[in-house]
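A reminder from the course coordinator: this example appears on the midterm review sheet, so study it carefully.

Given structure:
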């Protein structure tokens, strides 16, 4: 202790010299400047750079067409005949006995689905269903971007009209939202929504990028430009799967434009010591680490539910994040292969327990016509390969080291935690990224495809969230 005091005294005496005093002051100013710069950078990091891009073929033209064009989905007898021919030529493998969905799509049940597709499914009828809502295309950053735009039939006096963008994921499409659209565009509790639902470039009727690098950040920028082109300066966002990341990026880029962000899939995996403590203490004393009993029920045993289950379900991800074009060639050529690949996700991602069922539980939540319509959107547009590439573009580097991983989300946020989502994220974890959580709901049932599975539940939760946001703004 005495030697430490002597050292401090010697330092104080040395600083009496003018030269050393000047050096100390300069050092202090320099450190202070660095600290101010660091804090300024932190403040600037509250938003994500919007950037710019060009994804069309060839070079960017001097002037880009910004016209918004009506679009109608069509089909032809030739297209349907080609589909039937390919189905008729399918070589089915011999199914394993009692394998259910543990090896993937059950091959016995697949033959039943394909028989219905070939002999009963009416694509022309489904085209009419798809065209029930108005479709459009507009060119953004070199790509024809498809979207549907649904306005409410009436807006009663005293009812607030708000724009809302819904964004899908993989292997879904804009069609996932067809059951929530009438619920959102009907006035209720003084609120009604004008809904814009785009197709991610490379999915469905949106043109696929011609250049490498089109990730969620690029998609977010394209959709922000779409909303601007439609004349919206502030709006709500809702998304799941890739849609949750894209809408999160939109909120990070232009928080001043986003009234509220509602997600039915959200995960935070970089919690550091806080997450470690949650995992160690949570099963025994959850209240000490910000967990609820429901969090404990959904999270633990942790390795089984969050590691082993995900390993069982993520083989597709490793393929699509590394060599999507190789596997995609076969899927783009075989409608039956495509159906098995896509529909298997609608089985197990709805509930992991469906792996133990001969029919994968597909018709417990869905109608075959709806499932096959979604498959047809991939088949008729040849979009399975570019949709798979989206994984490669987003996961070619550590997604947790991307610039958006270092930027918080400060807009009002609503989180709907469905019990059979692939991963559960407690509110205490979600706060590490989403800094302004207005509502967090433990949904009573449902899985990954919330809008498709439980349209009423999802709509009700979104509406309750929007009401809270509107009330906060008024106060």
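Designed residues:
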């Amino acid at each position: 202790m005495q030697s430490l005091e002597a050292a401090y005294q010697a330092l104080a005496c040395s600083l009496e010299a003018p030269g050393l005093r000047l050096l100390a002051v300069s050092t202090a100013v320099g450190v202070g400047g660095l600290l101010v710069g660091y804090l300024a950078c932190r403040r600037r990091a509250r938003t994500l750079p919007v950037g710019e891009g060009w994804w069309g073929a060839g070079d960017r033209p001097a002037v880009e067409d910004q016209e918004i064009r009506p679009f109608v989905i069509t089909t032809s007898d030739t297209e349907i005949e080609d589909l039937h021919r390919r189905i008729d030529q399918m070589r089915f493998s011999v199914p394993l006995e009692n394998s259910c969905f543990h090896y993937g799509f059950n091959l016995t049940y697949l033959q039943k689905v394909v028989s219905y597709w070939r002999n009963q499914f009416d694509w022309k009828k489904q085209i009419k269903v798809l065209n029930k809502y108005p479709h459009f295309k507009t060119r953004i950053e070199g790509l024809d971007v498809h979207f549907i735009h649904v306005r409410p039939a009436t807006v009663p006096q005293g009812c607030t009209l708000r724009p809302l963008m819904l964004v899908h994921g993989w292997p879904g499409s804009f069609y996932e939202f067809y059951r929530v659209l009438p619920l959102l565009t009907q006035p209720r509790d003084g609120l009604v929504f004008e809904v814009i639902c785009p197709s991610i470039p490379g999915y469905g009727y949106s043109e696929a990028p011609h250049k490498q690098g089109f990730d969620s950040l690029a998609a977010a920028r394209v959709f922000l430009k779409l909303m601007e082109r439609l004349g919206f300066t502030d709006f709500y966002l809702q998304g799941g799967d890739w849609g949750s990341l894209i809408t999160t990026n939109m909120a990070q880029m232009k928080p001043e434009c986003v009234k509220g962000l509602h997600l039915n899939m959200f995960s935070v995996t970089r919690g550091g010591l806080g997450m470690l403590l949650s995992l160690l203490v949570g099963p025994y004393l959850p209240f000490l680490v910000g967990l609820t009993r429901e969090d404990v029920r959904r999270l633990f045993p942790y390795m089984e539910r969050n590691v082993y289950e995900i390993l069982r379900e993520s083989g597709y991800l490793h393929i699509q994040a590394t060599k999507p074009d190789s596997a995609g060639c076969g899927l783009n050529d075989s409608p039956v292969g495509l159906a098995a690949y896509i529909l298997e996700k609608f089985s197990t991602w709805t509930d992991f327990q469906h792996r133990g069922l001969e029919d994968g539980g597909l018709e417990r939540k869905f109608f075959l016509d709806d499932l096959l319509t979604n498959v047809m959107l991939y088949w008729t547009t040849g979009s399975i390969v570019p949709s798979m590439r989206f994984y490669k573009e987003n996961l070619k580097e550590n997604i947790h080291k991307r610039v958006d991983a270092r930027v918080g989300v400060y807009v009002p946020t609503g989180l709907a935690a469905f019990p059979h989502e692939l991963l559960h994220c407690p509110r205490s974890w979600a706060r590490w990224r989403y800094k302004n959580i207005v509502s967090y709901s433990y949904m009573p049932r449902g899985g990954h495809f919330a809008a498709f599975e439980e349209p009423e539940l999802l709509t009700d939760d979104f509406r309750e969230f929007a009401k809270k946001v509107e009330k906060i703004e008024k106060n």
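The first strand starts at residue 68 and ends at 71. Strands lie at 68-71, 135-140, 143-150, 160-167, 191-198, 235-239, 258-263, 413-417, 437-442.
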